[in-house]
Design brief:
Blueprint (H helix, E strand, L loop, with lengths): L10 E4 L9 H28 L6 H18 L2 H10 L3 E3 H34 L4 H4 L2 H27 L8 E2 L6 H7 L5 H33 L5 H29 L8 H25 L2 H11 L18 H7 L8
Parallel strand pairs: 1-3
Antiparallel strand pairs: 1-2
Helix pairs in contact: 1-2, 1-3, 1-10, 1-11, 2-4, 2-10, 4-6, 4-8, 6-8, 8-9, 9-10
Length: 338
């Protein structure tokens, strides 16, 4: 495109979820309620795990980090959308747009990797319980968490730097409710082939890598569970796996549709609906599915709220416990689900 037809864009306009003014109060109420539930639910999980020494195990260590990532993931998009609805303004500064995109991709990818690490943790606990304390030691858990943060930050930084080099035309309306890579690429006047190729390659590694680990881990877990002699034990285990996999495929299914399909095939309305699921709905449901159906978490939440009398505990210091007690907590028979 001729440079004379390009202009320096200092801000963008976020289209939002609906352009109809009579829908805005309803959308504001719904998303405010969902956001509050998301933040409060994930914050309670973090506090419950932090204040209960019996939950200082690898499984709950990764769960608390997943809750933190979920709360931050929703915070990168929902508050700005609520402010725009309340102020009847659609603007977001250029720098703010790139920052939102960067942190959205960071915490979204962090969710992906943590889901994969949690599946691997369950695989080791159920399929190789005797080696669990060695394989999932405190050092290994911290290294896995650090690796997740490094990989996700570098991936988000790569996309941000590639986006900075693009030019944008006078039409600065983003047909989305937040700044994401795909709608920004559709808006650019520059050649975006490099960005699209990078998006596909990096997206493939971030999405399909952890997803493959999840599928392989659960395949081994199910194979092990089928050999459990107790019918009630198998039923509880399958129920737990089913709940986890429901959230996993809800998140990954919508994300894969948005990020691994060619940008020319994207529809604004469908992308916005898919984005609502993996940015708002899934982070809101995670505390319920991963934690609130767990008797250990219910006990911890009750103690946190002061509903039960605190009992005296004599446990080793340190956030991530190892040894026989940790195996008892994470092993299949003693992780209680209703």
């Amino acid at each position: 495109m001729d440079k004379n037809n390009q202009s320096s864009v200092s801000e963008f306009l976020l289209f939002g979820l609906s352009e109809k003014s009579n829908h805005q109060p309803l959308l504001f109420g719904i998303f405010l309620a969902m956001y509050l539930v998301t933040v409060m639910g994930n914050l309670l999980i973090i506090l419950a795990i932090g204040f209960d020494p019996q939950l200082h195990t690898p499984m709950y260590f990764f769960l608390s980090n997943l809750s933190f990532a979920d709360a931050c993931f929703s915070t990168t998009t929902v508050p700005k959308m609520l402010v725009n609805i309340q102020t009847h303004s659609q603007t977001i500064l250029y720098g703010g747009c790139l920052a939102q995109m960067h942190f959205f991709m960071t915490f979204g990818a962090l969710d992906d990797f943590l889901l994969g690490v949690m599946a691997y943790d369950r695989y080791v606990a159920i399929c190789s319980p005797l080696h669990y304390s060695t394989v999932m030691s405190s050092l290994v858990c911290l290294l896995l968490l650090a690796l997740c943060w490094v990989l996700t930050t570098l991936a988000a930084l790569l996309h941000t730097l590639l986006m900075v080099r693009l030019s944008f035309c006078a039409d600065n309306t983003i047909h989305h409710f937040f700044c994401d890579v795909v709608p920004l690429l559709q808006l650019s006047c520059s050649a975006t082939s490099t960005n699209q190729m990078t998006l596909f390659l990096v997206g493939s590694m971030i999405l399909t890598g952890p997803l493959s680990l999840i599928i392989l881990s659960y395949a081994h877990i199910i194979s092990t569970i089928l050999r459990v002699p107790s019918a009630s034990g198998r039923q509880k285990a399958f129920s737990t796996c089913g709940s986890h996999l429901t959230v996993v495929f809800l998140f990954y299914g919508t994300a894969i549709v948005v990020y691994l399909c060619p940008t020319s095939s994207h529809s604004g309305g469908k992308d916005r609906i898919a984005a609502v699921f993996y940015t708002v709905v899934t982070p809101m449901l995670n505390p319920f599915i991963y934690s609130l159906r767990n008797k250990d978490m219910k006990r911890a939440l009750s103690r946190l709220s002061g509903l039960n009398t605190l009992s005296s505990l004599t446990l080793r210091p340190g956030y991530i416990q190892e040894g026989p007690h940790a195996q008892e907590v994470v092993a299949l028979p003693s992780t209680s689900y209703e």
